[in-house]
Amino acid sequence: MTTLLKHLLLPPGSMLLVLLGGLVFSRRRGSAGWCVALACCLGLLVLAMPLGCALLARMVEIYPPLPAALLASGQAEAIVILGSDSDYAIELGGETVGEQTLARLRYGAWLHRRTGLPVLLSGGLVEPEAPSLAEQMDQVMTDDYAISGSRLETRSRDTWENAVESAAILRGMKVERFYLVTHARDMPRALRAFEKNGMTPIPAPLGFDELRPSGPRAWTPSAKTLLASYYVLYELAGGLAYRVMY
């Protein structure tokens, strides 16, 4: 139900519903309904263009890439990688990490090789009969990156619970400062969650949607860019909800 509401309330779902309403309304009100429908079409077009997505992303991607000087400073005591998505890959034998989670693992493995810090993987159940997301992440870290021995947090269902459950494990490890690995657009909400749970995360963002090509490609719409805009809008809404709730 939560997933359904999320897709209906955020673009493109919400805009398609308004577009349909505008077309229906146009039968009675004529030009007013057509104006609503046209505005929705233009809105979807802007969200599908890299330039439009980049302008949105600037509102949430407020933390820069981790500086090399900070990486070499030795301030962090661990690396925490937040899970995001899972996918069923028949060629790999079943449920495994999705594209976004895989990108986070790649960067987390890169950080681990340069620092030697212990790794905590955070992500709970995604399907009733499947391993937890953290277990799927650990499988990839072991098989693909030859990194074993990661600590696993397997109970969380969202970013706030990522922080609550991970904080308990980190305290047991006597860790307070750590590199927090998640997408740049997710970082403000994730940092707030961990800080509210008494931790001191150091942002290690990846996947910057703000960095888009210039020239004609910046104006070329695509389904991939529309999906990126959806994630950015989700984070804008989620960030507002976190400021109200926490």
Please give a structural write-up.
With 246 residues, the chain is of the alpha/beta class. It has two domains: 2-59 and 223-245, no CATH class; 68-206, HUPs (Rossmann fold, 3-Layer(aba) Sandwich). 53% of the residues lie in helices and 13% in strands. It contains ten helices and seven strands. The chain has helices at 2-9, 13-29, 31-47, 50-57, 68-71, 99-115, 133-145, 159-172, 187-196, 223-245; strands at 79-82, 86-89, 94-97, 119-122, 151-153, 177-183, 200-206. The strands form two sheets. The protein has a five-stranded parallel sheet with strand order 5-4-1-6-7, sandwiched between helices. Strands 2-3 form a two-stranded antiparallel sheet. Strand 4 (119-122), helix 7 and strand 5 form a beta-alpha-beta unit. The longest helix is centred in the C-terminal third of the chain and has 23 residues, at 223-245. The radius of gyration is 20 Å and the shape is elongated. The model has no long low-confidence stretch (mean pLDDT 89).
